[in-house]
Amino acid sequence: MMGKANVALAQCAMCRATVENNVSSGETSVGAGLNYGIMYLFAAPYVLAMIVGYFWYKNSKKRKLQTSKFQNS
Predict the structure, then answer these.
(1) CB 40 within 8 A of CB 33
(2) H/E/C letters for each residue in 15-41?
């Protein structure tokens, strides 16, 4: 997925016009940076959800151990 980040075509009309203007003048770094920004914005919510899910699972497992120890005593 990260290897395909430089070919993302999901851009708004104004961003696309800016990139096309820069590419026609020979500057390609703006387009590459814009595509990496799009991929970052795409991936950020999923990474955040995975982090929250991990801590939720960890906390749930800890509570389960505490309740089982309390019931066995």
Answers:
(1) no
(2) HHHHHHHHHHCCCCHHHHHHHHHHHHH
CA 13 to chain CA centroid, Å, is: 22
Given a cut of 80, whether residue 66 has pLDDT beyond it is yes
The pLDDT mean for the chain works out to 80
Q: What is the sign, positive or negative, of the torsion defined by CA atoms of 46, 50, 52, 57?
A: positive
Distances from the Cα of 73 to the Cαs of 17, 60, 61, 67, in angstroms?
70, 20, 19, 10
Whether pTM > 0.85 for this model: the answer is no
Q: Rounded distance, CA 4 to CA 2, Å?
A: 5
* Residue 19 CA, distance from chain mean position: 22
